[in-house]
Amino acid sequence: MDIFAVLATIALLIALIVWLKLHPFLAFLVASIFAGFSLGIEPAAIPSAIEQGIGNTLGALVVIVCLGAMFGKLIAETGAAQKIAQSLIQLCGKRYMTWALMLTGFIVGIPLFYNVGFVLLVPLVFSVVYRSGLPAVYLGIPLLAALSVTHGFLPPHPSPTAMVPMFNADIGKTLLLGLVVAVPTMILAGPVFASQLKHIKAEPLKTFIPKEQDASSLPGGWNCFITALLPVVLIASSTVLPGLAPSPETENLLQFASHPLVVMLLALALASYTLGIRRGVGIATLMSYYSEAIKDIALIVLIVAGAGALKQVFVISGVSDTLAAMIDGADLNPLLLGWLMATLIRICLGSATVAGLTAAGIMAPIVATTGVDPNLMILAIGAGSLMCSHVNDSGFWMYKEYFNLSLRQTLLSWTVMESIVGVVGIIAVLTLNSVLHTL
Fold first, then answer.
1. pTM of the predicted protein model
2. How confident is the model at residue 328 (pLDDT cuts 50, 70, 90)?
3. Domain segments of the chain as ranges
4. Where would one find coiled-coil regions in this protein (predicted)?
């Protein structure tokens, strides 16, 4: 009976978002209440479960996501993203242009949220198209594949970051394993796949060709690269530094310094100085950037909160025991189940973030009972949440309109690229799981 209640809850969530066009946050709240009644939770306990789920999820997440949004806004507004793109293109030359654009999407995509990265970087791709004469789709797909990979797999992006507390995972380990999964995934979905797309003719609208900042006004190349990658280095080091402490006092200090909240605050402070204050950008201007960043991320934070509420209802109901028994009986790898669940929800809903967090809410209670690596579960669900993007995904239409493509061309390039990311991603995750179990 419990499994039918879970399936009915997912169906209701899809109906509320797709058919009634309800905001995902409201849809999650309604679905959480429905799940509570369907799973036999005492009515009086349902509101407190929802509040507990929202509080537990946002308490560990909201600071990191907001600081990450501020950091990404700074990278965009100061011209650091443009400088990184120009430097990589000049370094790689025309022959390896797709690789340069993939690296641009990867490096700039780490601090930038997906939609911001898309709007910022795709016009730069069009500048390269008009200067080089190379096909637009051939050049654009590698960059967009890299943006998708960072969005689905790597903290501090909202979806993987939100799943860390849901699975009691380690954000540093998730990032390190995510990098291992990301590299082969974006290579195969990017430059390798793009080499088969040269025949797609597209004439991007001239409206989207950017007016680039003067080179003399941009920050230095090394400054941009080091600053953009700073959160990655600091978050990754957070898994290693505490273990190297020579004394308990030092270990305690290193644990403080390596906490994700402190890491992101430190990264933002250093970036504010190197890209802002040192280059004459006033504090008031920096604060205006950061205020805009908070507005940009507010809706995502609400979606994460709603997913946390649904997850807590599933936890309190005890449905995890039923799901765990089903997995044992079917002898199905939990990582594959998490990927499949995220894929199905992604196909139905379109939003990668909603698909990932909904699947995580269902899978989180059973991670402990199955003994699966929680960091790998985050990556498996992230891979599934990127699968099969089609007409119900806003990214699908942004790509189609920016590149001025037909529906068929969009399906053959964008949808296939996103599906390659999802398939290669889960293969890499399962391979990592096998390797880790043999060590």
1. 0.81
2. low
3. 2-438
4. none
